[in-house]
Design a protein that fits this description.
Elements (H helix, E strand, L loop, with lengths): L1 H21 L5 H18 L6 H18 L9 H16 L11 H19 L5 H19 L1
Helix pairs in contact: 1-2, 1-3, 1-4, 2-3, 3-4, 3-5, 4-5
């Protein structure tokens, strides 16, 4: 249940930041800062609204995924990519090792890695991409030759 709530938080963090930045013309820094401040203050003022784990981690996940929403609009084709990045961020955040506690830049680095990963998957599985069409062509040739033998 905690993962579902954090995944929803991740999706909202990435998509709302991008929406406020691009559609409401607020800029990436202002959008990320404003939304993160609202979420952070909400859980600071109402710490007992959810359990302790969620109260602590929802603002962190939201801030991290707002970094995803700060990405350039040229790299973002649609909101689905942002949503996938937000879910992937939440998944990695929940399963991260405590080995990295105390190191700075973890949220930004994690946001960068998850955004690049989702963009790579999106690019690899697009119909216009040459690699996928080459793989399909190779598969057709292999199965075609197998039938002839």
């Amino acid at each position: 249940m905690n993962f579902i709530i954090l995944a929803i938080t991740g999706v909202l963090g990435a998509t709302l930041t991008f929406y406020v930045s691009e559609q409401l013309n607020q800029g990436v820094v202002r959008a990320s800062a404003l939304l993160s401040l609202i979420v952070g203050l909400f859980f600071y003022c109402f710490p007992d609204i959810l359990d302790v784990y969620l109260t602590k981690n929802i603002p962190i996940v939201f801030i991290g995924t707002s970094f995803i929403g700060m990405a350039s609009p040229k790299g973002q084709k649609h909101y689905l990519l942002l949503a996938i990045s937000g879910i992937l961020f939440s998944l990695v955040y929940i399963n991260k090792s405590h080995f990295f506690n105390g190191y700075g830049g973890a949220l930004g680095t994690l946001a960068f890695i998850t955004l690049l990963t989702s963009m790579a998957f999106s690019h690899a599985f697009s119909k216009k991409h040459k690699i996928i069409s080459e793989i399909i062509s190779l598969k057709n040739k292999l199965f075609h030759r197998k039938k002839q033998v």
